[in-house]
Amino acid sequence: MTTKLRAIHGDITSLNVDAIVNAANSSLLGGGGVDGAIHRAAGPELRQECQRLQGCNTGEARITGGYRLPAKHVIHTVGPVWNGGADREAELLASCYRESLRLAVSAGLRSIAFPCISTGIYGFPAEPAARIAVQTVQEFVASAPELEEVVFCCFSDEDLRLYQHALGEQIVRG
Ligand code: ADP
Protein backbone atom coordinates (compact mmCIF):
# COMPACT_ATOMS: atom_id res chain seq x y z
CA MET A 1 0.00 0.00 0.00
CA THR A 2 1.19 3.51 -0.65
CA THR A 3 1.23 6.07 2.14
CA LYS A 4 -1.23 8.92 1.87
CA LEU A 5 0.28 12.38 2.32
CA ARG A 6 -2.02 15.33 2.92
CA ALA A 7 -1.92 18.89 4.16
CA ILE A 8 -4.66 20.30 6.36
CA HIS A 9 -5.32 23.56 8.20
CA GLY A 10 -5.87 22.98 11.89
CA ASP A 11 -4.76 22.64 15.48
CA ILE A 12 -2.49 19.61 15.82
CA THR A 13 -3.65 18.97 19.40
CA SER A 14 -7.11 18.02 18.09
CA LEU A 15 -5.94 15.30 15.69
CA ASN A 16 -6.88 11.69 16.26
CA VAL A 17 -3.76 10.00 14.88
CA ASP A 18 -1.29 7.48 16.29
CA ALA A 19 1.27 10.25 16.89
CA ILE A 20 1.53 13.99 16.64
CA VAL A 21 4.98 15.52 16.34
CA ASN A 22 6.01 18.28 18.70
CA ALA A 23 8.42 21.02 17.61
CA ALA A 24 10.15 20.90 20.99
CA ASN A 25 13.24 22.60 22.36
CA SER A 26 16.28 20.63 23.50
CA SER A 27 15.19 20.56 27.16
CA LEU A 28 11.91 18.79 26.19
CA LEU A 29 10.37 20.59 29.14
CA GLY A 30 7.84 22.65 27.20
CA GLY A 31 7.92 26.10 25.66
CA GLY A 32 5.81 28.41 23.50
CA GLY A 33 4.04 27.87 20.20
CA VAL A 34 2.96 24.37 19.29
CA ASP A 35 5.04 22.93 22.16
CA GLY A 36 3.05 24.94 24.73
CA ALA A 37 -0.25 23.97 23.09
CA ILE A 38 0.65 20.25 23.13
CA HIS A 39 1.73 20.28 26.79
CA ARG A 40 -1.42 22.20 27.82
CA ALA A 41 -3.66 19.74 26.01
CA ALA A 42 -1.80 16.59 27.13
CA GLY A 43 -1.66 17.56 30.80
CA PRO A 44 1.13 17.46 33.43
CA GLU A 45 1.84 13.74 32.94
CA LEU A 46 3.49 14.56 29.62
CA ARG A 47 5.97 16.91 31.28
CA GLN A 48 6.75 14.24 33.86
CA GLU A 49 7.57 11.69 31.18
CA CYS A 50 9.60 14.28 29.24
CA GLN A 51 11.62 15.09 32.34
CA ARG A 52 12.81 11.49 32.50
CA LEU A 53 14.15 11.70 28.91
CA GLN A 54 16.81 14.27 29.87
CA GLY A 55 16.68 16.32 26.72
CA CYS A 56 17.16 15.79 23.00
CA ASN A 57 19.68 17.10 20.47
CA THR A 58 18.76 19.14 17.41
CA GLY A 59 17.69 16.87 14.54
CA GLU A 60 16.85 13.97 16.87
CA ALA A 61 13.50 12.71 18.19
CA ARG A 62 11.98 10.99 21.25
CA ILE A 63 8.60 9.31 21.74
CA THR A 64 6.21 9.58 24.71
CA GLY A 65 2.59 8.85 25.49
CA GLY A 66 -0.16 11.24 24.43
CA TYR A 67 -1.98 11.32 27.79
CA ARG A 68 -5.07 13.59 27.50
CA LEU A 69 -4.56 14.17 23.78
CA PRO A 70 -6.65 12.30 21.21
CA ALA A 71 -3.31 11.21 19.70
CA LYS A 72 -1.86 8.06 21.29
CA HIS A 73 1.74 9.31 21.25
CA VAL A 74 3.79 12.46 20.97
CA ILE A 75 7.06 12.38 19.05
CA HIS A 76 9.22 15.26 20.21
CA THR A 77 11.80 16.56 17.78
CA VAL A 78 14.11 19.54 18.08
CA GLY A 79 14.29 21.67 14.95
CA PRO A 80 17.23 23.90 14.06
CA VAL A 81 17.18 27.61 14.93
CA TRP A 82 17.49 29.52 11.63
CA ASN A 83 20.84 31.27 11.54
CA GLY A 84 21.06 32.38 7.90
CA GLY A 85 21.18 28.93 6.32
CA ALA A 86 24.89 28.05 6.43
CA ASP A 87 24.66 26.25 9.76
CA ARG A 88 23.34 22.91 8.39
CA GLU A 89 19.78 24.08 9.11
CA ALA A 90 18.28 22.34 6.05
CA GLU A 91 20.04 19.05 6.82
CA LEU A 92 18.97 19.21 10.48
CA LEU A 93 15.37 19.99 9.55
CA ALA A 94 15.27 16.99 7.19
CA SER A 95 16.70 14.87 10.00
CA CYS A 96 13.80 15.90 12.29
CA TYR A 97 11.27 14.53 9.79
CA ARG A 98 13.27 11.36 9.12
CA GLU A 99 13.99 10.56 12.78
CA SER A 100 10.34 11.16 13.74
CA LEU A 101 9.16 8.78 11.01
CA ARG A 102 11.77 6.21 12.01
CA LEU A 103 10.48 6.24 15.61
CA ALA A 104 6.89 5.96 14.40
CA VAL A 105 7.69 2.91 12.27
CA SER A 106 9.67 1.21 15.07
CA ALA A 107 6.70 1.69 17.39
CA GLY A 108 4.37 0.12 14.82
CA LEU A 109 2.41 3.34 14.27
CA ARG A 110 0.30 3.88 11.14
CA SER A 111 -0.57 7.58 11.17
CA ILE A 112 1.45 10.64 12.11
CA ALA A 113 0.91 14.40 11.93
CA PHE A 114 3.64 17.04 11.70
CA PRO A 115 3.50 20.76 12.47
CA CYS A 116 5.66 23.13 10.40
CA ILE A 117 8.82 22.46 12.44
CA SER A 118 11.19 25.39 13.06
CA THR A 119 9.10 27.92 11.14
CA GLY A 120 7.71 29.75 14.18
CA ILE A 121 9.93 31.02 16.98
CA TYR A 122 12.96 29.29 15.39
CA GLY A 123 12.62 31.42 12.24
CA PHE A 124 13.22 28.89 9.42
CA PRO A 125 11.73 30.42 6.21
CA ALA A 126 8.37 28.78 5.52
CA GLU A 127 8.76 28.03 1.81
CA PRO A 128 12.01 26.03 1.88
CA ALA A 129 10.84 24.39 5.12
CA ALA A 130 7.69 23.09 3.39
CA ARG A 131 9.73 21.76 0.46
CA ILE A 132 12.18 19.99 2.79
CA ALA A 133 9.31 18.52 4.84
CA VAL A 134 7.46 17.12 1.83
CA GLN A 135 10.56 15.83 0.05
CA THR A 136 11.99 14.13 3.15
CA VAL A 137 8.67 12.46 3.97
CA GLN A 138 8.19 11.33 0.34
CA GLU A 139 11.66 9.79 0.31
CA PHE A 140 11.09 8.02 3.63
CA VAL A 141 7.66 6.55 2.88
CA ALA A 142 8.90 5.15 -0.43
CA SER A 143 10.49 2.39 1.66
CA ALA A 144 7.97 2.37 4.55
CA PRO A 145 4.64 1.24 3.07
CA GLU A 146 3.42 0.20 6.54
CA LEU A 147 2.77 3.89 7.28
CA GLU A 148 -0.79 4.61 6.18
CA GLU A 149 -0.98 8.36 6.51
CA VAL A 150 1.24 11.39 7.05
CA VAL A 151 -0.54 14.67 7.76
CA PHE A 152 1.08 18.09 7.47
CA CYS A 153 -0.90 20.15 9.97
CA CYS A 154 -0.65 23.81 9.00
CA PHE A 155 -1.61 26.55 11.42
CA SER A 156 -1.97 29.25 8.76
CA ASP A 157 -3.54 29.51 5.30
CA GLU A 158 -0.17 30.58 3.94
CA ASP A 159 1.52 27.39 5.20
CA LEU A 160 -1.34 25.29 3.81
CA ARG A 161 -0.86 26.92 0.39
CA LEU A 162 2.90 26.19 0.50
CA TYR A 163 2.32 22.52 1.39
CA GLN A 164 -0.38 22.07 -1.25
CA HIS A 165 2.06 23.47 -3.77
CA ALA A 166 4.90 21.23 -2.55
CA LEU A 167 2.59 18.21 -2.67
CA GLY A 168 1.60 19.16 -6.20
CA GLU A 169 -2.05 19.29 -5.28
CA GLN A 170 -4.62 21.19 -7.23
CA ILE A 171 -5.99 24.07 -5.16
CA VAL A 172 -9.73 24.00 -5.72
CA ARG A 173 -11.74 27.02 -4.66
CA GLY A 174 -15.47 26.60 -4.51
P1 ADP B 1 9.64 26.35 16.42
O1 ADP B 1 10.23 26.76 17.74
O2 ADP B 1 10.13 24.98 15.98
O3 ADP B 1 9.76 27.39 15.37
P2 ADP B 1 6.81 27.04 16.92
O4 ADP B 1 5.89 26.34 17.83
O5 ADP B 1 7.18 28.45 17.25
O6 ADP B 1 8.09 26.08 16.76
O7 ADP B 1 6.21 27.03 15.46
C1 ADP B 1 6.17 25.91 14.63
C2 ADP B 1 4.89 25.95 13.80
O8 ADP B 1 3.80 25.48 14.59
C3 ADP B 1 4.48 27.34 13.31
O9 ADP B 1 4.10 27.24 11.95
C4 ADP B 1 3.28 27.67 14.20
O10 ADP B 1 2.38 28.52 13.52
C5 ADP B 1 2.69 26.30 14.36
N1 ADP B 1 1.72 26.11 15.47
C6 ADP B 1 1.57 26.79 16.62
N2 ADP B 1 0.57 26.26 17.36
C7 ADP B 1 0.09 25.19 16.66
C8 ADP B 1 -0.95 24.23 16.86
N3 ADP B 1 -1.71 24.25 17.96
N4 ADP B 1 -1.16 23.29 15.90
C9 ADP B 1 -0.40 23.26 14.78
N5 ADP B 1 0.59 24.12 14.53
C10 ADP B 1 0.83 25.08 15.45
UniProtKB/TrEMBL annotation:
CDD domains: Macro_OAADPr_deacetylase
PROSITE patterns xrefs: MACRO
Domain Macro: 1-171
SUPFAM superfamilies per record: Macro domain-like
Keyword hit for Hydrolase: yes
Keyword Membrane on entry: no
Broad class of enzyme this protein falls into: hydrolase
EC number: 3.1.1.106
UniProt entry keywords in alphabetical sequence: Hydrolase
GO molecular function: O-acetyl-ADP-ribose deacetylase activity
Lineage top rank: taxon: Bacteria
Pfam families: Macro
PANTHER family noted in UniProt: GANGLIOSIDE INDUCED DIFFERENTIATION ASSOCIATED PROTEIN 2-RELATED, MACRO DOMAIN-CONTAINING PROTEIN
Name of this protein: O-acetyl-ADP-ribose deacetylase
Native organism: Marinobacter aromaticivorans
